[in-house]
Structure formats: C-alpha cells, structure tokens
Specification:
With 142 residues, the chain is mainly beta. It is built from 1 helix and 10 strands. Keywords: Signal.
C-alpha cells in the first residue's frame, strides 16, 4: 500500500508543479460553444516560445496567429493531438491543409492557422505548439 501511495505521489507531482508554477501566459484559450458561422480569433503572446492551445467545448473554427518576438528566423511547430481536428495553414492568405507534427514557415514574421472542430462535441481539445528559432536556414516566404 505504501508503494502505491508513493507511486501516485510521484505520478502527480509534475502535474501539480505545472499547475501552480507553469507558464500559464503561454496557454492560449479558444472560445467554445460558438454558434454556426461564428469563429474565434486569437494571437499567441509574442514572448511565448512554447505552450498549449486549449479549446473547451470546441465548435465551428478558430484562427490562431503566431508572431513571436524572436528577432531571428523561426518556424512554428504544431504538436500532435488525440482528436484529429482539421488544420490549415492560412499564412499570407493562402489556405493549405496541414498535418499534426508539422512546422510552418512565416510570412512577414507571422504564421496563422485555422482549426476546425469535429462535428461531435468534446469537453476539451489541447495541442502543444513551440517556436523553433533558427540561427540560419529558415527563410520567410514572401
């Protein structure tokens, strides 16, 4: 029994630390329960280089803008998700489907994605993102 309690404490310790000491500024919440035809549009804080997009009761679609304050070339990388929503790169006004786990190049120091919720209502959808800062090699699309 003592091993079980110790194991449970060790499992939940990282979660507890992240809840109380994590970087909540980089958790971007999307508006839920959108009516048909409505969408949410948010910008990730410029100083966030990794974080989470969180969408409670996702419906319709959302647009997320990334324009990090890196001063260098960068890529915006989208993590993986259990629930497969449709993702589109809409950077520069061109709408292209993207897959989870992909990195996107900026145009004019900005990346924008469009996320379409599934037809069945979920409680919550989360996906990690991070900014891959490049010393050289990553170039912007013009």
């Amino acid at each position: 029994m003592k091993c079980f309690v110790l194991g449970a404490i060790l499992c939940f310790l990282p979660l507890t630390f992240s809840m109380f000491f994590g970087d909540h500024a980089c958790v971007v919440s999307l508006k839920g329960f959108l009516t048909p035809g409505e969408y949410d549009e948010v910008s990730v804080p410029r100083d966030c280089i990794n974080g989470t997009l969180r969408w409670n009761y996702p419906t319709e679609y959302a647009i997320v803008h990334f324009s990090p304050n890196t001063g260098k070339n960068f890529l915006v990388c989208i993590g993986k998700s259990v629930y497969k929503f449709e993702l589109f790169d809409i950077t520069g006004g061109i709408r292209q489907p993207i897959t989870y786990g992909t990195c996107l190049e900026p145009k004019n120091s900005k990346v924008s994605i469009e996320i379409h919720a599934s037809k069945s209502l979920l409680y919550q959808w989360n996906i990690r993102y991070y900014i891959d800062i490049k010393e050289t090699g990553a170039t912007e699309r013009n």
